[in-house]
């Protein structure tokens, strides 16, 4: 694909060195919509390899890698500062895609937060809030969640256990030796927080009469990603046995879901759609709990205090 025009708008995609985020970037590069694509991830060599593979594979040159460690608030702040200082087209989209799931033990971020909550929610929360003033009016923001946030879906994962944000960030039970249950609950809870956060930001922007849109996305079960890398073989077998056969039969590829995720950025018909939850290509209802505005406000205000904004 030959590109003659200079890009007119910038998108940041976190965790786009492989899997879902990589294929989202690939789809946007092939879209012909003149985006400048920033791949944001923590490992310099992995970021560089992903950028080179994307440029080679798509023949689209306007792709850059930047270092971002969502487990460090200092790194998030440094990333946003570095982003502002360089000459790029206006920032028009952020895809909060990076995510981790830790089941082997309890780990902590550089700031002392429980790792899953710190990376999946707090890191992205700070990133978006710091970049909002730099975003154009017609921007789109997408938080990648998961159907595991919804107990009504038969994903084989435990239901989220939302509680006061301080307890999510600094759990009193360290969860060691639990066979992964605590870690899986932390993951599903963080994915609920992604939806709560998306809806709350959408409401706040609407009150300000901002045309920006914010939506949540569920890629569904993908068997070709690295999300389950912290599982032992026995844990993987147990999880597979707990998943509904229908869910397993409908497992998606990260390439197909990356294209579906990119659609939330690219599709002109979604220009004014905000505060919604997409299951792949379909707009559906999220969990009942995710519409609790009191919880969403508490999550937002408490998160602001934790990340000091």
TrEMBL record:
Keywords: Oxidoreductase. It comes from the Bacteria. InterPro entries: NAD(P)-bd_dom_sf, SDR_fam. It holds the Pfam family adh_short. Transmembrane segments: none annotated. Belongs to the short-chain dehydrogenases/reductases (SDR) family. PANTHER family: RETINOL DEHYDROGENASE (PTHR24320), SHORT-CHAIN DEHYDROGENASE_REDUCTASE FAMILY PROTEIN (PTHR24320:SF152). This is SDR family NAD(P)-dependent oxidoreductase.
């Amino acid at each position: 694909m030959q590109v003659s025009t200079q890009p007119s708008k910038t998108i940041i995609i976190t965790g786009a060195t492989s899997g879902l985020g990589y294929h989202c970037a690939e789809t946007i590069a092939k879209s012909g919509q003149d985006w400048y694509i920033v791949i944001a991830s923590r490992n310099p060599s992995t970021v560089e390899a992903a950028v080179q593979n994307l440029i080679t594979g798509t023949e689209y040159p306007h792709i850059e890698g930047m270092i971002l460690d969502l487990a460090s608030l200092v790194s998030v702040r440094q990333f946003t500062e570095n982003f502002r200082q360089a000459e790029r087209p206006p920032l028009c989209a952020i895809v909060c895609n990076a995510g981790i799931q830790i089941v082997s033990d309890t780990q902590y971020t550089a700031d002392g937060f429980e790792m899953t909550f710190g990376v999946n929610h707090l890191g992205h929360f700070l990133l978006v809030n710091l970049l909002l003033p730099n975003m154009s009016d017609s921007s789109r923001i997408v938080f990648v969640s998961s159907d595991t946030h919804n107990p009504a879906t038969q994903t084989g994962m435990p239901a989220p256990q939302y509680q006061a944000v301080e307890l999510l960030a600094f759990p009193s039970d360290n969860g060691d030796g639990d066979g992964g249950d605590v870690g899986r609950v932390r993951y599903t809870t963080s994915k609920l927080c992604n939806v709560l956060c998306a809806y709350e930001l959408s409401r706040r922007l609407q009150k300000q009469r901002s045309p920006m849109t914010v939506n949540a996305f569920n890629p569904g079960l993908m068997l070709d990603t690295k999300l389950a890398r912290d599982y032992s073989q026995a844990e993987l077998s147990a999880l597979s046995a707990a998943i509904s056969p229908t869910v397993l039969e409908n497992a998606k590829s990260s390439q197909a879901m990356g294209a579906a995720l990119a659609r939330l950025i690219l599709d002109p018909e979604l220009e004014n759609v905000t505060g919604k939850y997409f299951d792949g290509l379909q707009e559906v209802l999220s969990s009942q709990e995710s519409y609790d505005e009191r919880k969403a406000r508490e999550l937002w205000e408490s998160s602001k205090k934790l990340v000091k904004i």
